[in-house]
Design a protein that fits this description.
Radius of gyration: 30 Å
Family: Belongs to the transglycosylase Slt family.
Strand content: 5-15%
CATH architecture of the largest domain: Orthogonal Bundle
Order of helices and strands: HHHHHHHHHHHHEEHHEEHEHHEEHEH
InterPro entries: LysM, LysM_dom_sf, Lysozyme-like_dom_sf, Transglyc_AS, Transglycosylase_SLT_dom_1
CATH topology of the largest domain: Lysozyme
Largest sheet: 2 strands, antiparallel
CATH class of the largest domain: Mainly Alpha
Shape: globular
Pfam family, one: LysM
Oligomer: single chain
Distance between the termini: 105 Å
Helix content: 40-55%
Keywords: Signal
Protein name: Transglycosylase SLT domain-containing protein
Length: 448
């Protein structure tokens, strides 16, 4: 079963990882004439209060006997159902696209068990595990036009508020462990604030300040403050946000009713976290784990460069059997784990070709490792990845470089074209020209 799931994942990863991280990776298949961009409001994680108590009817994580993750999700439904025309519309839309749901399920298969497990630990409704269907179609490389990234679509500011590191080497908004922890913490905080999961979800999409504002407005008018009563005051995207989740929840609750077949996902961990003791190339890590590079990247999409930095604080995710292979192969490796180091550009107009020559590689390798566009050059102060060329460059990349390194570039300047030098000699006027000038001058004098 795991082999089948990983085959599906690896196939999807080829398409997902071919795109630049700066390109919107989100599937249009989940858009329904509405933009799926998340809330841009940021709230400090430190203000989050204690998690809500275990909801009534929840079964503790260690008491589950479900063999399929979908059944486990159904068992933990706890958000009151929403039933309106938008829910019907979205349910019909998803149900009429079973291939779309199948693709999303294939992408979700490595992550769902972990997400459900984390929800149960916090006593949160398990249908929240379906939220990435709406946010990103379970594409960890999804990037919105608002620069929201990952399964849970954190914008940069909110990501920083919830301790998701974003630097030259990694973006934890795209990693399943850190981003899931941050998203659930944020959702808990919103639930504590509003005491209502539907409003908490609306705030996740639109921002808590906006939800507080419209609640106050309806209170002043003597109107209701539940989701349905407030929906008309919300932007179209947020008004559709909770109904979309309800639609997916309906289909997962009873797939056969909608003629949908959800691919089975085993109710056991897909991956395990492996501690890393030093810098290691992505390609080397994949080789030691006996995985394809695309499959490795699909489980570890937070790493943006060909080298994984960060020492013991950084973990990599591997399927259990591959983790065992990784440890066995690592013990016998006997070679350097990383072939990359950093170099700081101190002067202006350093050509990529000159850098490539200095570090024994090609301009293409330098450009690809540092995402430097064609026909552009590096600015002074940039720190770039380069191949190690000597013993002096051995060792891990320093923590201060990891945290502070930036790459800045500008368009290459076209070679200057020399202006034509003026002639040293003036052309002599011919005799006929002199006579013509003289006649014209005389005529002008007569008319003055």
């Amino acid at each position: 079963m795991h082999d089948m799931i990983r085959t599906t994942l690896a196939t999807a990863a080829l398409a997902l990882l071919a795109a630049s991280p700066l390109t919107r990776a989100m599937d249009t298949e989940t858009d329904m004439d509405m933009d799926n961009a998340p809330a841009s409001a940021a709230s400090p994680a430190t203000s989050a209060r204690t998690a809500p108590p275990l909801a009534a009817g929840f079964i503790k994580a260690d008491e589950y006997r479900e063999t399929d993750v979908w059944g486990r999700i159904r068992s933990g439904y706890a958000i009151p159902d929403l039933d309106n025309s938008l829910v019907s519309r979205h349910t019909q839309w998803y149900a009429s696209r079973p291939d779309n749901l199948k693709r999303i399920s294939g992408r979700a298969s490595p992550y769902l068990y972990h997400i459900v497990q984390e929800l149960e630990k916090r006593g949160m409704p398990t249908e929240l595990a379906l939220l990435p269907v709406i946010e990103s179609a379970f594409n960890p490389l999804a990037l919105s036009t608002a620069d929201a990234a990952g399964l849970w679509q954190f914008v940069p500011g909110t990501g920083k508020d919830y301790n998701l590191k974003q630097n030259m080497f990694k973006d934890e908004r795209r990693g399943v462990l850190a981003s899931t922890d941050a998203a659930l913490t944020y959702l808990q905080r919103l639930y504590t604030m509003f005491g209502d999961w539907q409003l908490a979800l609306a705030a996740y999409n639109w921002g808590e300040g906006n939800i507080q504002r419209i609640i106050k407005k309806n209170q002043e008018l003597g109107k209701g403050t539940d989701f349905d009563s407030l929906a008309e005051l919300m932007p179209l995207e947020t008004r559709n946000y909770v109904p979309k989740l309800q639609a997916v929840k309906n289909i997962v609750a009873s797939p056969s009713q909608y003629n949908v077949v959800l691919p089975a996902i085993d109710n056991q961990p897909y991956f395990t976290a492996v501690d890393k003791t030093s810098d290691i190339d992505l390609a080397v890590a994949a080789q030691l784990a006996e995985m394809s590079l695309d499959e490795f990247k699909a489980l570890n999409p937070q790493f943006k460069k060909p080298v994984i930095t960060g020492g013991e604080k950084t973990k990599i995710l591997l399927p259990k059997e591959n983790a065992e292979k990784f440890h066995l192969n690592l013990a016998q490796w006997g070679r350097e784990l990383s072939t990359w180091t950093t170099h700081k550009i101190t002067g202006a107009r350093v050509s990529i070709a000159a850098l490539a020559s200095k570090f024994g590689t090609t301009p293409e390798v330098i450009r690809q490792a540092n995402n430097i566009p064609a026909k552009s050059t590096l600015k002074a102060g940039s720190t770039i990845l380069v191949p190690k060329v000597s013993a002096s460059s051995a060792g891990d990349i320093a923590e201060n470089i990891i945290e502070n390194a930036v790459v800045a570039f500008e368009a290459e300047r076209s070679p200057r074209v020399k202006a034509q030098a003026p002639s040293r000699y003036k052309a002599k006027a011919s005799t006929s020209d002199k006579k013509r000038i003289s006649r014209n001058t005389s005529a002008q004098r007569k008319h003055r």
